[in-house]
Every structure is written in C-alpha cells, then in structure tokens.
Amino acid sequence: MEIRHLRVVKAIVEEGSIVRAIDKLHLTPSALSHQLREAENQVGAPIFFRINKKLVLTPVGERVLSRAYAILGELDTLQKEVKELIGGEVGRIRLSTECYTSYHWLPAMLRRFNADFPHVEVSINFEATHQPLPKLLSGHIDLAITSDPVPETALEFVELFRDELVAVVPAGHPWTEKPYVTAQDFALVNLIIHSLPLETVTVFQKLLTPAVVSPAKLTVLPLTEASIELVKADMGVVVMAQWALKPYLASPDLRTVRITPEGLWRQQYAARLRNHDYPLYYESFIQFLAQEIQF
Known about the structure:
Layout: H1 3-15, H2 18-25, H3 29-43, E1 48-51, E2 54-57, H4 59-86, E3 91-97, H5 106-116, E4 120-124, H6 132-137, E5 143-146, E6 155-170, E7 180-181, E8 190-193, H7 202-211, E9 217-220, H8 224-232, E10 237-241, H9 242-245, E11 254-259, E12 264-273, H10 280-292
Parallel strand pairs: 3-4, 3-5, 7-11, 8-9, 8-10
Antiparallel strand pairs: 1-2, 5-12, 6-10, 6-11, 6-12
Helix pairs in contact: 1-2, 1-3, 1-4
C-alpha cells in the first residue's frame, strides 16, 4: 500500500463519511473511490463493509487503520526532523512543467511549501513549458514535471501521482448519454489539443494512435480558456485532467465523459539529472509534491 492509501482510510474513519473525507483530502469523489479500490486490491480483502450507505471497518480494515496511524505518525516525525535539519539552508529550485494547465495547482502548492521552507525560493520557468526535459538537460531548470518519461540515461524520473483525463463536451452533446467513450467515438469529432507533436499528447499516446483512429478534425489551441469556450459553443471536444477542469465545471454548459471503461490515466513524474549532487531540500520538495498533490 502507498502513503496516500493510508491517508484515505484514516480520513474516512476520522471524518465519519466519504463526503467529509473528500473535503479533507481535497480529492474528487472518483479519485477517492479509485484510491480506496486500489488499497483493497493491494491488501487482497475489503477494508470497509458497506452497510446502509455507511462504511464500517472490516477486521482487515482495523489492522490497516492501526498501521496507518503508526506509519503516518512516523512519517510526520521524519518530515519534522528533516525540516529542522534543512530549515536554515538557503537555496533555489527552478521548476517547469510540460503543460500550462499544471500552473492551476502549482501556485497554491508552492505557498504551502514555502511556509515550511521559507529560505528556499521556488521559481517557475514558463519559457521551458512544453520542452522541460531539454531545458533540464541544458541546465536552465533544476526539476521538470512531466508525464512523458524518455529513455535518457542522464535523467531519472521519480513518480509523483496519477491523474485521470476526461472528455469535455457541451451540455446536450450525444456523448453525455454514454457511460464512457472509446477511440472510435473520436473519429466523428473536432478534437481540440493544447500542443504538438501528437506523440506528446496523452490521448493520442494511450488511446488514438494504438487504435489507429484519427479525429474528424484536429484543432491546436494552447489556451485552456479558449478551448473551453469552443466546447461551450459546440465546436469541438477537449480532453483534460479532472483537476484542471475544476475552475470551469460550475458552468451549466459543460459536461465530462469518461474515456474507456477503466478511464484514461497518466502518471506524472518529477524529472531531474541522474547522479547529480542535490541539496537535501530538493528531495524534500519532490516528496512534498508526491504527498500533497492528490486528485
């Protein structure tokens, strides 16, 4: 089991309901359900009984909760010790991502990190967006957030989190009647993507290219807000991560549709130079990303 699974079990028990656990962990309902299923699959037994819409710990769940308190307590102690160890260090982390939508969640996360590490400046290099790995190799940035690891021996990729991508369509679109869409459905629509080349676009990498399917039309539009407005006007569909859509889903004009029965997931990584002597606060920053960002 992973730390995030232990946090989910602990939050559900402490908060007394899934709804309050969702608020505490800042997860979507589907993300929490997915993590709980992952936890139960990994232990090989149910963690909760579902009784009258309530979750009650099974005997296995009681043991998991007990170990969760112990492990998370040790982790909190370790983090406190590390913070005290490096708290006096002064440094800088130059960061970039491969996607502009990541900047929706980065500022809030960076504020939380700076509260714990006030002497470490984290700067975002916007110019390196869409090409963070070459900029990392050339020394223009120190860390890159990417979902596209490459077989580059000079780099190492540390797993951060998984996020689900969904199709965004206007209200009344035929897809809203479907529980999910498949690759073949995209052959009939104008697909709006943020950037080229296509081999770096997740929906092509993981779905369309393997199925040998091309959209009826392809529109490249790097601005998320403009893409959303085209969708509202029924001029295309866009595929985006659930968390990136949060600012827009209050609109009654938009709907989301799952992609494939299992969902379209991608793994996010922190990329850094291999065999490089980084200060301790770099490792702390990567761990902070992996633990604090949950969708």
